[in-house]
Design goal:
By secondary structure, the protein is of the alpha+beta class. The protein is built from ten helices and 14 strands.
Length: 387
């Protein structure tokens, strides 16, 4: 006959349910025999038995504390804003990965699998070799805004992302490297924003140079044809204002372009609504097309106000346009104004109208000085402006 002292202590989870049972069994046959001799059968328990029960209860309390701390640490790990993963062993198997890491790789099942098997697309990109190098050299690797192509879902095409990260070797107190700790953040939005900012700065520099060249050309040609300083000032300022109006239209759309109708209204709007007619479909112009067309419309409107249909109350300007196969055909026609005669010399305004749409826009403008009023026919292939 043998006697045993057995303590079964339940280990409870945070909700109070039993998850494990710790059993502590001691052979107390000799102690039982001594107690029987001292007290007879059924005597009081020895103090040692009470101590065993007390120690078991203390162990259970400590285990509960450790369990809560472990759960808190796990929640912090899983909810960390940056992506974190632990890669273990020479086979580089995923041991841990938090929620941010799972989102980065499309919530694939990776725990327990080697990196090359779980994320095959990163092998040829050099990341597996990089992890081996970190373990061999025992030195961390820091990557900044590095490009990585990942499948966000199993069947999805590769998607380029940019990440800041650290591969940190995990070294034991004995000096052995057991794995790699991965920590970083997805900075794709930041990289795209920086690229867009650089693109906008480059585009701004380009547009400023073009605008200055346009102003220089306008000043030079206006000065050559102006009769006196006052005439130069009036003509030069009016042309700059036309350029400014078109800039305002483009600024309202973040320089994505402007509507043809709005460009025309910027010049014809100041006249009475009975003095102009606009008829045609909606047409969006690129920034280069809008700037050139704005100058042409200004010259036509200025000429009409000085010498043509808009110089009197009964005159009218009719503008009609249509598009076909990516080409714009527009006709500016004046009627009801003074009788028109062909000019004896070509002024800057006429040359600007005929030449503004050439070159990078590959368009054309032809003036016809009909007796009933000026006619300007414009053809322009849309969307072909060169930088």
């Amino acid at each position: 006959m043998r006697y045993w002292s057995a303590v079964h202590a339940p280990l409870l989870d945070s909700s109070g349910r039993c998850q494990f049972v710790v059993q502590n069994t001691v052979d107390v046959t000799e102690l039982q025999r001594l107690r029987t001799l001292a007290y007879g059968p059924g005597g009081e328990p020895a103090p040692g038995e009470k101590d065993i029960l007390q120690r078991a209860q203390e162990v259970q309390a400590e285990n509960q504390t450790l369990l809560r701390e472990t759960q808190d640490l796990r929640q912090l790990f899983m909810q960390a804003p940056g992506f974190i993963a632990v890669i273990a062993g020479p086979e580089l198997r995923f041991a841990l990965a938090n929620n941010a890491y799972q989102r980065l790789i499309g919530d694939r099942q990776i725990i327990g699998r080697p990196v090359g098997e779980a994320l095959p697309e990163v092998v040829e990109q050099g990341f597996v070799a990089l992890l081996h190098g970190v373990m061999e050299r025992r030195e961390p690797f820091v990557g900044q805004a590095m490009s990585v192509s990942l499948r966000r879902t199993p069947d999805a095409p590769l998607e380029e992302r940019f990440v800041d990260f650290v591969f940190q070797p995990i070294v034991t107190p004995g000096g052995d490297v057991t794995g790699v700790f991965v920590e970083g953040s997805d900075v794709t939005d930041r990289v795209h924003a920086e690229r867009q900012q650089k693109l906008l700065v480059d585009e701004l520099n380009h547009r400023v140079k073009n605008s200055l060249a346009t102003v220089q050309a306008i000043a030079h040609q206006t000065l050559r044809t102006a009769a006196n300083p006052a005439a130069f000032q009036e003509a030069f300022e009016s042309r700059l204002m036309a350029l400014s109006k078109t800039h305002d239209l483009l600024t309202a759309t973040n320089w994505r372009g402007a509507a043809l109708r709005d460009v025309l209204l910027a010049e014809l709007g100041p006249f009475g609504p009975n003095q102009y007619e606009l008829e045609g479909p909606d047409v969006d112009l690129t920034p280069a097309e809008a700037l050139a067309f704005g100058l042409v419309a200004h010259e036509l409107a200025t000429n009409a106000a000085k010498y043509g249909a808009l110089s009197g109350a009964d005159g009218c300007v009719s503008v009609e346009w249509a598009t076909q196969d990516g080409r714009l055909a527009l006709t500016w026609r004046e009627r009801g104004g003074p009788q028109v005669a062909s000019p004896t010399r070509r002024g800057f305004g006429s040359r600007l109208i005929e030449r503004s749409l050439q070159g990078q826009l590959e368009g054309s403008a032809k003036l016809e000085f009909a007796p009933d009023g000026l006619i300007c026919r414009i053809e322009l292939p849309l969307g072909v402006a060169k930088s």
